[in-house]
Amino acid sequence: MVQTDTNTGTEWRTVCALADLPVGRVHAIRCGATIVALVRGADDQVFALENTCPHRGGPLAGGKLVAGEIACPWHGFRFDPRTGAATVPTPHAPATSIPVRIAGEDVQVLVN
Amino acid sequence: MQSLAELALKMHESVDLTDEREVKKFIGFTQVGENLIGVRRRATRLMEEDALEIGPGGIVTPRRDPFGLYIIYGGTPHHTCNLFGYWHINDVDEVYITVGGKNPDDEATRLILMRYPKSGERDMFAWYCRECVALLHCFVHETGSLGFETFWKAESEAVRIFNSDATLRRCKNCGAEHPLGYRFMANKNSVEEEAARRIW
Fold first, then answer.
1. C-alpha span between B33 and B53 (Å, rounded)
2. Per-residue pLDDT for B123 more than 80?
């Protein structure tokens, strides 16, 4: 379901319920025609990265959390789920961060 | 674009493998035209499964064709056991041709060819957990901008940093401790670093 914010004109797609996202792992969640990598922090904040590692295109949503960072399953390069910034190695191109919001019990991802 | 056969011929023309003094010039890689060429010589038994890669399936021994030729594609972490004390990640492809002797203790020769790195292309010296394959530490060197002549100094610095900080060698995922790193050139290593060469 896509919801349009009448104040800003932005569109948000509901991708799952917050309760469907256990803390401490990376979730591969369908968002329209694509997959995004979602991480729920201990404070119930949720972060999303595009499912493409900037190193060699590995599927970040298939990775694991290492020290709170998303580790690509192909070569282990790590990214901060909050910003997409590369953490190991640095310097390195960032992963693309996608805005997320919590609407009631739902997790919504910005689609435009 | 050159075919693999053309690349192999180029190496054959560039290095006289019957001249030991000539071969020594290529031990640490030498620029030939737009390429870098390296030569390794070790016992056949040591060459057979000494090269490892990390990919979607974890740590694997690369498949070789019957002529001992294989390619390490750019971006792929690769490690040669007991020779390089780190995982090397570079932005260019490396072509390996290994010709072994008849018996396990006969000397084998490996030719390594890669394009000279362009500006913006980098070398990385990385360490992965030996238990869970999490990336522990990675040193980035701008080889393309700085020139390949800076590579070995960067290698030395990367190993020094990794070995001087125990927190870098402790896996944040599973807690396993990684052995020390070591440099390719034995005379650049401490006794402890050379001992690590025998481990991995």
1. 28
2. yes
For A37-73, what is the HEC assignment?
EEEECCCCCEEEEECCCCCCCCCHHHCEEECCEEECC
Q: What CATH number is attached to the domain comprising B142? A: 2.60.120
Rounded to an integer, what distance in angstroms lies between the CA atom of residue B139 and that of residue B154?
Answer: 9
CATH number of domain containing A49: 2.102.10.10
Q: Please give the DSSP secondary-structure letter assigned to residue B182.
A: B
Nearest CB neighbour to A75, from listed B54, B136, B172: B54
Residue A21 belongs to domain spanning = 2-110
User: How many structural domains does chain A have?
Assistant: 1
Hey, of B88, B93, B125, B135, which one would you mutate to test binding to chain A, going by the most A CBs within 10 A of its CB? B135
Q: How far is A109 from chain B (nearest CA, A)?
A: 28
Distance CA B61, CA B52 (A): 5
d(CA A108, CA A23): 17
The tally of domains found in chain B comes to 1
Chain B residues whose beta carbon lies within 8 Å of the beta carbon of residue A58: 56
Write down the ipTM of this complex: 0.88
List chain B residues with CB under 8 Å of A75: 54-55, 75-77, 89, 135
Asked whether the beta carbons of residue B140 and residue A73 sit closer than 8 angstroms, the reply is no
State the Cα–Cα distance between residues B184 and B191, nearest whole angstrom. 14
CB A2 within 8 A of CB A10: no
**pLDDT tens per residue across span A29-77:** 999 999 999 999 988 899 999 999 999 999 999 999 999 999 999 999 9
Across the interface, whether the CB atoms of B139 and A88 are under 8 A apart is answered no
